[in-house]
Amino acid sequence: MILVTGGAGFIGSHSVDALLSAGFSVRVLDNLSSGKLDNLPKHPRLSFVQADISDAAAVDAAMDGVEAVLHLAAQVSVQASIESPAFSAQSNIAGFINVIEAARKHGVKRLVYASSAAVYGTPAQLPLDETSPTRPLSPYGLEKLINDQYAALYRELHGFSSLGMRYFNVYGPRQDPRSPYAGVISRFIDRLQQQAPLTVFGDGGQTRDFIFVKDVAKANLAALQSSLQGVCNIGTGRSVTLLQMIDSLGQAASRGLQVDHQPARDGDIRESATQVTRMNQSLGVVASVGLIDGLKELVASC
Ligand code: UD1
């Protein structure tokens, strides 16, 4: 039995699909604050518990009979973490401790959890790798870094096996464009559907590593089955500018796209890129969905 916290969410529900396809039994724990039951299939090997990770007793009960945990439940909005740091820490630090401690007590063999590229802040040198300096720019990024430190401590103290997944820019079906953490691609899809121009903050020359959510689910599955310890950057290893991404989106949607430029966002990171050697070689996963193909699948799903 694999416990997936946040399993009704965007990355969570795709990971549940991958786990079910691989033959696992899955228990989802989700408070449905941003996840949706509609994201989950009806399946004989899938069960659901509605609970919050800040409820230690509920987390403890959900560990019964579990061999590995995929912990994705979190307060996911960077902006909310700046506005309400104590509330954010309640989920992202206290909730994490509830999960890792309950897992340890129940003799769970493996924890894979959502860390984030946000731990790096503005990169001093590109491409990033797992040894790059961390300098988070928000409580959210700091909370994820603290998760990584707790996981390292649990390895030292208890020999507890875990891997933190430092996701870069994940896109794909089921990402809610109105959610506070909606990435640029889901916003653009929403604009496209409304036949409205795409808003580009700045000149569009900023770069990001966009990874398709099914590749992320594949990496999560491999991480649960691997014994790799520490943290692992999760991306494609190929960054593109926003304007290049818009060009690919135009090709995927088979239409020309109108763009409206607005001033650059405060605190926006200009360039982001990661090496994926650890993901490719140690985890044995290569992101295989190209940007145009991923965007086509996303457009078709709307
Ligand atoms: C992500 C976080 C951000 C955080 C940063 C730090 C999300 C949605 N964003 O930002 O809060 O500070 O990591 O790690 O989780 N853009 C547009 N038009 C739009 C939306 C975005 O031009 O309508 C631009 C942004 O200015 C940015 C790029 O697209 O340059 C990507 O934006 P986004 O998807 O928000 O991701 P990050 O900037 O990586």
UniProtKB/TrEMBL annotation:
Pathway: Carbohydrate metabolism; galactose metabolism. InterPro entries: Epimerase_deHydtase, NAD(P)-bd_dom_sf. One of its GO terms (molecular function) is isomerase activity. Pfam families: Epimerase. Residues 2-235 form the NAD-dependent epimerase/dehydratase domain. SUPFAM superfamilies: NAD(P)-binding Rossmann-fold domains. Gene3D superfamilies: NAD(P)-binding Rossmann-like Domain (3.40.50.720), UDP-galactose 4-epimerase, domain 1 (3.90.25.10). Keywords: Isomerase. It comes from the Bacteria. The keyword Isomerase applies. The keyword Isomerase applies. Belongs to the NAD(P)-dependent epimerase/dehydratase family. This is UDP-glucose 4-epimerase.
